[in-house]
Amino acid sequence: MKRLAALLFLIASGAHAETVDVKYRGSVDLKPFACQAITKSSFINRVCYDAANQYMVILLKDTYYHYCEIPKSTVDALLSADSLGRYYNVNIKGTGKDGPYDCRTHRVPAY
């Protein structure tokens, strides 16, 4: 009976898992992430960060991308930057094809 009550509470409270499709990765469950909607940028719409794995999923326009082994301090600096798009392009995306947090060259967490 307690399990049924707990299940009904979760359904009524709207608790549900959210999964997003990340380019070059596939489906990622956002349960372990802290996500923040971004309203002060026309380029970046959402930032989700999993501090335990130093893994960021970011919504650019209408596509999610991922970045690996990215420190919390870098994500915090992104979120507090005057221009999120400029900060992202210079400090996260980087120059050339391999940025400083490219998941092709850094550890990708398993979920």
Amino-to-carboxy terminus distance: 31 Å
Query: Uncertain runs with pLDDT below 50, 5 residues or more?
Result: 4-14
Determine Rg (CA atoms, Å): 16 Å
Tally of alpha and pi helices: 3
Question: What's the pLDDT, averaged over the residues?
Answer: 88
Helix content percent band: 25-40%
Taken in chain order, the helices and strands follow as HEEEEEEHH
Q: Say how many strands there are.
A: 6
Strand numbers in spatial order across the main sheet:
3-4-5-6
Class from secondary-structure proportions: alpha+beta
The profile of the biggest β sheet is: 4 strands, antiparallel
Fraction of residues in β-strands: 25-35%
Task: Give the overall form.
Answer: globular
Structure description:
The chain has a domain at 17-93. It is 28% helix and 28% strand. It contains three helices and six strands; from the N terminus they run αββββββαα. The chain has helices at residues 2-13, 72-80, 84-93; strands spanning 19-22, 26-29, 34-37, 44-50, 55-60, 63-68. The strands form two sheets. It has a four-stranded antiparallel β-sheet with strand order 3-4-5-6, covered by helices on one side. The protein has a two-stranded antiparallel sheet with strand order 1-2. A hairpin with a 2-residue loop joins strand 5 and strand 6. Helix 2 (72-80) packs antiparallel against helix 3 (84-93). It is globular.
